[in-house]
Amino acid sequence: MALEHAILVSLLEKPGSGYELARRFERSIGYFWTATHQQIYRVLKRMENDGWVEAREVPQQRRPDKREYSVADLGRAALSSWLHDPIEPESVRHDLAVKIRGAAFDDPAALIREVERHRQTHRDRLAHYLAGEERDFTGPDAGATAPDTPLDAERELQHVVLRGGIAYERMMIGWLDDVLATLARFGPDH
Amino acid sequence: MALEHAILVSLLEKPGSGYELARRFERSIGYFWTATHQQIYRVLKRMENDGWVEAREVPQQRRPDKREYSVADLGRAALSSWLHDPIEPESVRHDLAVKIRGAAFDDPAALIREVERHRQTHRDRLAHYLAGEERDFTGPDAGATAPDTPLDAERELQHVVLRGGIAYERMMIGWLDDVLATLARFGPDH
DNA sequence: TGATGCATGTAAGCCGTTACATGATTGT
DNA sequence: ACAATCATGTAACGGCTTACATGCATCA
């Protein structure tokens, strides 16, 4: 389980409230980890009890007050310990692949629409990632700061993770094209 | 949740016991769905109660008897209904990506070994998939049967799912090379 | 003698999803 | 007037993981 660790990383990048974390999990962190606000609030509470994070009440005008969390020493230590702990490469879980194999016992052509929908989602995500890359990593000041500063490491590592998301979406689009071509060979006119 | 449906697909391809299903989930089905024997036995029992599958006692010599399951009409209908139900494209969950972004706040070079281990796992899986493709889909009788038979659909769809696994592993290996090159730039000699 | 494979399970606990709930403010 | 955004939660249910448990057969 890495939700706690994903939260630690996000709070190290920038402190924030549970609500703000939920926003981030819909965007950048969400490229490789999803979480709803319910999960986040529950885990934040546990992390606060364990002394991993500290909360600060931030009064706001025209808005509800918020509890801004930041990482405590114990949290930093927990993250470091997890980083040094080997993890097993995850296995994939593709509902769609189950459906594709299952289609052999039903009507393969009925899956075409579904696969096209998925393909469109992956195209959208790819466009979104590419826009983010353009905005955050190819600006006029890209590489303009001194090399090898911690900030550079943070940026470079964020960038390489984003490139992973881009590679994933491209691979999926290519594969779904392959799937569509295969399904087309077992259409209703056969 | 698609474990039930993955089991239905597997049992339609070939009836088998809970133990045999667990084996398959370590191999071919495991390319895109994992399950342990505990999950499988529990779900099989529920599916039997719901009339989705039927069990047949098979006495064996020098081995414990086994309960061989096959798909009942209700199970076939449940699968068909699920196949026609749209699902949302899943989001990825990459512990490793969390680690990579977290490494900015620790020692980036300490992750190199871990990433290399993962890369090796993906190389092994790729080799395994390619061997399976060679064995099952490029044999002398590939395409030798009459076109567009149900068996062909089953084979073709299994093959396209396997090609998805191959594409995934190739993508991961390429990305992990990218990650290693990035981590190397923030090594201890900086 | 010990490890591995065949075969089937129970129990505990955490994780994740869905639904429900509140309440103010801002924009159409 | 209605929807969306900011902000924080509770409750219930089901899924998944880990550990524990049994027992026979085979092979080194």
TrEMBL record, chains A, B:
Span of domain Transcription regulator PadR C-terminal: 92-183
SUPFAM superfamilies on file: Winged helix' DNA-binding domain
UniProt keyword Thylakoid present: no
MF terms (GO), sorted A to Z: DNA binding
Chaperone found in the keyword field: no
Transmembrane segments: none
Keyword terms, alphabetized: DNA-binding
Segments forming domain Transcription regulator PadR N-terminal: 7-80
Matching PANTHER family: TRANSCRIPTIONAL REGULATOR YQJI (PTHR43252), TRANSCRIPTIONAL REGULATORY PROTEIN (PTHR43252:SF4)
Protein name, per record: DNA-binding PadR family transcriptional regulator
Species the sequence originates in: Streptomyces luteogriseus
